[in-house]
Amino acid sequence: MRLYILVFICLSSISMACADIKEDKNTAITLSNEVTNGMDSLIYSNPKNYTFTLEKTEGATNIEVSSYKDMLDLFEKHQYTPESWQAGIREIPRIYLPIIGDKWGQTTSKEITTDNKKRMFFRGLAPMILRANELIMIDRNHLKNIRLSFNENKMSDDDNKWILKLAKLYKVELNENGITTSTLDELWEKVDIVPLSLALAQAAEESGWGTSKFADKGNALYGQWTWGENAITPEKQRKELGNYGIATFETLQQSISAYMLNLNTHKAYTSLRSKRAELRTKDQKITGHILAGQLTKYSERGEEYVKGLRSLMDYNLLSPADDAYLSDDPPIYLIPVAN
Fold first, then answer.
1. What burial class does residue 279 get, using C-beta atoms within 10 Å of its C-beta: 0-12 exposed, 13-18 middle, 19+ buried?
2. Taking 90 as the threshold, does the pLDDT of residue 1 lie above it?
């Protein structure tokens, strides 16, 4: 099976985005019938499974590209252009870009205009972020149905197993009473989306617009720390903080998935989840600008980091991205070929 997944961007700055990046084989599942019937997406237990959800989509097409111009032409063909965006069109085609690696940072990004570099960055990344949120919402909607009909004494075996997987994945501890209302409530706060504007801004900030030397090594977007074999040691590692490294990923989707799971589980971002839940309760829009205010612990820069993210969102007019959604049309996979 060929894997045409967007591997686009990596790191340029060291952040405090701490997370223990490990593959949990005990919770890894294969996505097949469970995904197609909308009952089990759980991609984060094994991000590689994301590939299967894409590969099995009927009507998917593969298109060869040899340069960024080919991709821009395809974007235009599908009305994925600045003009369409300015006209208020928020539908985004499921165009999934291939690996760019070191060529992007070393040559292409230097040969094109700044505007085109940003367009490639944002438009290339947006479909994957929206797809990750789409899969989160599959889990959230299933969780919603379970919460609405929950009875501790009448829970089906399938629902029980599914909640146990979800609880392990989202680091929700169960007491001696097993699955309770409080278990579901805690999951309800954690299993939720990350606004597109915030995910785009952090990717730009953490990866230096994809021009970092890590771009061809780690396929990492969000500067997550880890301890273990699958890590790249930064040149200016602060020894007083231990032998940490920057988490690496086989695909961009794994990087996005790990980033969202990190925000949805790590204790450093409890306030972000609480703010998001508050917005939900008040039936208010979840925006990147609002949630960015809860990320003072993502970077050692603290409040300055938050100001930088909001400035980046404002300057690049990213707020409307929070209204974006994926097209219902089949996905397109771009296959890189030599010039």
1. middle
2. no
